[in-house]
Each structure stands twice: as C-alpha cells, then as structure tokens.
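Hi all, a correction to my earlier message: I attached the wrong file for FemAB family PEP-CTERM system-associated protein. Here's the right sequence:
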Amino acid sequence: MSSIIEAARAKGAAAVAAPVLRLLEPADRARWDAFVRSQPQASFFHLSGWQQVIERSYGHKTWFYYVEDQGRITGVLPLAQIKSRLFGHSLGSLPFCVLGGVVASAGPARGMLDAAADALAVALGVGHLEYRNLVSAHASDPGWRQKDLYVTFRKQISADDEENLNAVPRKQRAMIRKGIKLGLQGELDADVDRFFTAYSTSVHRLGTPVFPKSYFRIIKEVFGDDCEIRIIVRGGELIAGVLSFYFRDEVLPYYGGGMPAARECAGNDFMYWNLMQAAAARGARIFDFGRSKLGTGAFDFKKNWGFAPTPLAYEYRLYKSSELPDNNPLNPKYQLFIKLWKKMPVSLANRLGPHIVKHLG
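and the right structure:
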C-alpha cells in the first residue's frame, strides 16, 4: 500500500508544471499590468503599454518576457533593441524609459529572465545589454558593470497645499509666488499640440534633438488617464507644458518645457507647483521629479526645490563592445553638434530631430 501511495505522490509531483518563460501577447497585457502594479519594486515603465509605444513610434523590435508559474505571472522583463550606425547596437530594459530591469516576486523567475536576456543579446550580436534599475540587481556579479551618471529625485507630498508649499525652500517658494502673482494658470489638454510647442522650443534651446509629436500622441493614446498633459498660460499666452504619468500613489512629470517668456514669469516653477497641487488633490503622495544627469542645470533646479538626489543603478553587460556607452550631451565629442543644433531654425530641428533621437533611447 505504501508503495502505491509513494508512486501516486511522485506522479502528482511530476504533473505540477515547472515555471515557463513566455513572450507577451495582447491577451496577456491585463495580467502583466496587474502583476506590475502589485510589485513594490516595479515602476510605471514596466507596464505593457511601452511595447506599443516603442514599436509604433520607432519600429524597434521588442521582447517582453514573463515567467508563468502555476498559471500566475511571477516575473517580467521588458526589452527593446536599438540598432544604429551612429550610436551602436544595444538591447535594453528599457529605452526611452528611466527605469526597467527584472521585476520578480519569487522562485526562479529572476534567473530565468536574466538568462533569457543574455541569450537574446548573444543571438542578436549586440554591443551591450542595459538594465535601468532603481537599485542594483547585480552588484556582486563581475559580469555586470555600473555607470554613475544619473540620479532621481523623489519626495513625499501631503494632501495639504500649504504644507507642501512650506516644504519648498524659500528661494524657490518665492518663484512660485511670483508666478501666482503674475496670473499664471494651469489647464489640462486632451491633445499634445500646445505641449509640443513648449517642449520642442525648450529642447532646441538646450541643443538636443526633439522627439516627434507622434510619439507623445501615442503615449497619450496608450496610457489614457494615467498620462496627463498640463499647460501653463498667462492670459491665453502659452508659457509652459508638462506631460506627466500617474502610477499607484506617484506622479511623474516626465517631459516638459517652457517658452522664452517662462523665464521672466517663473513659468517652470509655477508649472511644477501647479502639478503638485493637482496631483495631491488626485491622491498622489509621491512626487517623482525624474532623472537628471549629475552636473546639469536640471539637477540643480530639482535640488533647489528641496529634493535629495538618489543615484540610479544603471547596469551593463558587455558583449561586442569593449567600453560602456556614452551617448549623452555631456560627452565632449557632442559639444560642437550641440552648438550647431542651437543655431538651427526650430522648424528644421523639429523635422530632423526625430531621426536622431529614435536611436538614442
């Protein structure tokens, strides 16, 4: 009798399916997103919608891997390939996003997803594999290298506007009040036109290529109410605009810019304050000021708001490349390009920029 019982147990154990690696299909999106929203280490940039955004906007190939165990998703890893003669051949989680990398709840999912990324990188013949982590996932692994270039700025906010305003250092608080005194107001837009005008004007002033307007339209279409476009005006005049994401109890102002008039009326300070007010009223309790490079004006601006920088753990595994990628405006070899770009007419920059930025990620 005991041998029969043991045989039955062995057969039952064998019948339990092992975890399996799968690629995301449209029918899986709701399950994928439910898993992401349930995991504390996951971010807005792990949502399945980014697959549609990247493929539709730029035509890049994507592989959104997930591990399924007993019918439940236990890990996800969104990946996209960028292949460029100018900027190299890479596989990353995730281009055009601040964060990415593996999110796993338990079991062998993390190892399976790392192995899948490694096998894909070899098969594609990429120069490097990149994970954009908030916290290092491979600090003790000599096969991975880390680059200290970016930081993020996150801070808790209150439901009370006065408390939030008093938490802003005095100098920046005075700038917010200046904008209020000059009659600045915030409005929501359903389309991207006014936002794109402010954004493209601003990035041209910085000498960097612009994303195409279609990219922002697709983002708004894919993420719906979780993507908000806020415009700052003064008597009907466009001053600034910001495109923000909402995720759980967080608000993330992600793309923004101001017209030349924003400087004289504290338009950017007022814009972020107006967003903070609206986000707090909506229930957000974390204001994520987003990624900035060390030693830049954006870094200083956010720090002056009383936000403390937290280093981002961007990790790289090299394959055909011998050096870490350095495709950013701080690289000295791009300084001449930046100077020339600033002198280019905005209309021409807006036509040429999308052909460049699609390869930067």
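Sorry for the mix-up. The radius of gyration is 23 Å.
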